[in-house]
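--- STAGE predict ---
source: upstream dedup step, 1 unique chain passed
mode: sequence only
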Amino acid sequence: MFTTMLQATQRIFQGMRNAMRRRVWILLLIVLIIFSGTWLLFYHSSSAASILGTSAAIGAVGPMRTVTAQKNGIEESMQITPGPYFLSELLEVRLTLTNHNKTPVMVAGVLANSPCTGALGVYVTGGSKPEYPLPVDGAFMSCPPPMPSSLNPGQTVSILQNFPLTMSGPMRLAFGVRFMHVVKNKQANQDVYTNFDPLDGHAPALSIVIAPKVPEDRVISLQWIGSQVHVAAPEEAHMNFRYFYTCSNFIPINGELTETGNFSWQPFSQSFLQLPLCSGAVSQWQFSVGAPGFSVANGNTAL
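--- STAGE serialize ---
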């Protein structure tokens, strides 16, 4: 019995020593990363053309296409990057909503370009394989329920959004907004919201077809030079770049993994990107770069 207890005690101490060694190695790794800057990071990037292949040139990007619908005092307008359309293309969409009535109308969400709680958006249906999934899409965001906003008489709201085409084949894009009636529940002493559609299902919409290959004159690619990401693109795309990124941060104090990002496509005018200042001691950066009417290229850093 004494021998069994002694063996059990030895196993416990051996396990404690192994755990301590692992913690020491983890701490050493964190210290090395903190004091050595970015030399421990591996850089990787890929263009849509290298994955999907290229097709013949289609020429310069033309003026935006516009579709409009109006009924019951409500006017909706949608402008979109013109075709031909192709897989991995970054579309730009301007959505405009006007209240021609003499009374306000309620909509679900804020009347601004908010990626989480915005009232206006694009409803996308259709699409098929081949696909071009992006490494970052804001899926980790935790969004609260949209609060109602009032569109006053004569008020016009216009927002600009970007989104990539990640599926090919026929697809339908429609103006998206949810109108609400407000009814006072006297017994519960609270407002009750019910949906209605002043356009009776006839919102502005476009049916498009997405080709599976990238036109050779619409390719954007990336090149790492040190800690900078240089963007190679046709001249027409310059000064019109957009980027989307997330940071996965490891915080050594409590061992947690947090994620942050810019949450929507944002413009930048340089021909390069710098590594963002992520908050953790060990960080992974995933990002996508594009321009309206051109392909999206992706990159990341990893340990």
